[in-house]
Automatic annotation (TrEMBL):
<protein>
    <submittedName>
        <fullName>HD domain-containing protein</fullName>
    </submittedName>
</protein>
<dbReference type="InterPro" id="IPR037522">
    <property type="entry name" value="HD_GYP_dom"/>
</dbReference>
<feature type="domain" description="HD-GYP">
    <location>
        <begin position="199"/>
        <end position="394"/>
    </location>
</feature>
<dbReference type="Pfam" id="PF13487">
    <property type="entry name" value="HD_5"/>
</dbReference>
<dbReference type="Pfam" id="PF01966">
    <property type="entry name" value="HD"/>
</dbReference>
<dbReference type="InterPro" id="IPR003607">
    <property type="entry name" value="HD/PDEase_dom"/>
</dbReference>
<dbReference type="InterPro" id="IPR006674">
    <property type="entry name" value="HD_domain"/>
</dbReference>
């Protein structure tokens, strides 16, 4: 796969999350900019740490997408919003490349005076993000010229004296607050993110993280994507693809439904056959996928991701391609997508068994919809392929179960405690 830089990944994350709500990404970018400058002023962090923390700052409110607390996040005076902080912490811990930085997100709304009394990891970074977060919110409310005065009034209570001093120093030297209102401030963040190139493993985890973000819309879609990816990779190996080509098929399958993050949840989770109008909207997920990729992903992988609904006879979408227009990798993901849908369980359907799935695949082959070689390979190795799918699916479900249990425990420890404190 073509090397992706921090800028490429950042842009993909931005476009994906903007499809849920664009306010928090813009806010996250400004917070990342402020955090980066405070860290540079502080001077003890290496380039890798600054790169990682800038990404964490970008994603610091990601839990609000899940918990529907976005409106609350954008007010200056805010009680401890543990629900979105807990979910954001768990998302980073289990579904992102930033596991070790997850506590920063968990405590980024905890007042300085409380956080200083707690024995928790990375609390100084949480204090840094907390200050940057509230500075940006206050400035967005139209009172930017007074922002430092307001923050100073909370010195030692809400905000860390250390980070306040570093923010003032950065402002005096570089005028960072004024630059937030322009369009070029992100160039400095990109520079920090690109000083330490992302490894292949990091890129892969980043892309998986973006796929897991679809869970904000539909957990079924995440499971479907992981299943489609597993089937695609196994078929590519069975067809004798080399490691590089197999990986491109796997990456294309991983990204194939990314655009569903922009489809209304009532359509994604509709319990039955969609109306023609709803189906028209559903089909736009391919175009949204292309828009989110934005030319950042290698062309071959992009085509694999975007052509999974094409059919050999030209009746598919979005381009009505025919057999001769499609590569074997694209045909593999097309059948993997269908097998995943047939064998997946939904609120309105049970998982189809092997007999029914095989019958439908053969019918589609006879109707010249699916590649006959792919169909026969899938049927010949159905049991072994689906055994591996089961292992992969169980692993993902296990992660979700762990997250749910940990969410409940952290809610008891922090959210309910905070609620009691606020009521007294």
């Amino acid at each position: 796969m073509t090397e992706l830089s921090g800028r490429h990944i950042h842009n993909i994350v931005r476009r994906a999350l903007n499809r849920v709500d664009d306010r928090l990404v813009d806010h996250g970018e400004r917070v990342a900019y402020l955090v980066m400058h405070m860290l540079l002023e502080e001077g003890s962090c290496d380039a890798r740490t600054i790169r990682n923390v800038s990404f964490v700052a970008l994603l610091h409110d990601i839990g609000a997408y899940k918990t529907e607390e976005i409106d609350n996040m954008l007010r200056f005076e805010i009680e401890q919003s543990w629900n979105h902080s807990i979910y954001g912490y768990l998302f980073l811990k289990y579904l992102s490349p930033f596991r070790s930085y997850a506590p920063v997100v968990l405590f980024h709304h905890t007042p300085y005076v409380e956080l200083e009394a707690m024995n928790v990891p990375l609390k100084e970074l949480a204090e840094c993000v907390s200050l940057a977060d509230r500075v940006d919110v206050f400035m967005e409310q139209g009172a930017g010229e007074h922002v430092l005065e307001v923050m100073e009034a909370y010195r030692g209570t809400k905000f860390s004296p250390k980070w306040l001093d570093l923010l003032k120093q950065a402002e005096q030297k570089k005028g960072i607050l004024e630059k937030l209102s322009g369009s070029l401030f992100m160039d400095k963040v990109y520079e920090a993110q690109e000083k330490v190139p992302l490894s292949k493993e990091e890129i892969d985890v980043f892309l998986k993280m973006i796929i897991f973000a679809i869970d904000f819309r539909s957990r079924y879609t995440v499971i479907h994507t992981i299943t489609t990816t597993s089937i695609s990779r196994q078929l590519a190996v069975l067809f004798g693809f080399d490691e590089e080509k197999t990986d491109k098929v796997r990456q294309g399958a991983l990204l194939h439904d990314l655009g569903k993050i922009g489809i209304p949840v009532e359509i994604l989770e509709f319990p039955g056959k969609l109306s023609p109008q709803a189906m028209k909207i559903m089909r736009t997920h391919v175009d949204i996928t292309e828009e989110i990729m934005g030319g950042e992903i290698e062309e071959e992988i992009t085509r694999i991701a975007l052509r999974h609904h094409e059919k050999l006879d030209g009746s598919g979408y979005p381009r009505g391609l025919r057999d001769e227009d499609m590569t074997m990798g694209e045909k593999i993901v097309a059948i993997a997508d269908i097998v995943s849908a047939l064998t997946g369980e939904r609120s309105y359907k049970v998982a189809f068994d092997k007999k029914k799935t095989v019958r439908i695949l053969r019918e589609m082959k006879e109707e010249n919809l699916l590649c006959p070689y792919c169909v026969e390979m899938m049927i010949s190795h159905f049991d072994e392929i689906m055994r591996q799918v089961g292992k992969t699916g169980n692993h993902i479900l296990n992660i979700y179960n762990i997250m749910q249990l940990e969410y409940e425990e952290l809610a008891r420890q922090y959210a309910y405690k905070g609620r009691d404190t606020n009521e007294t």
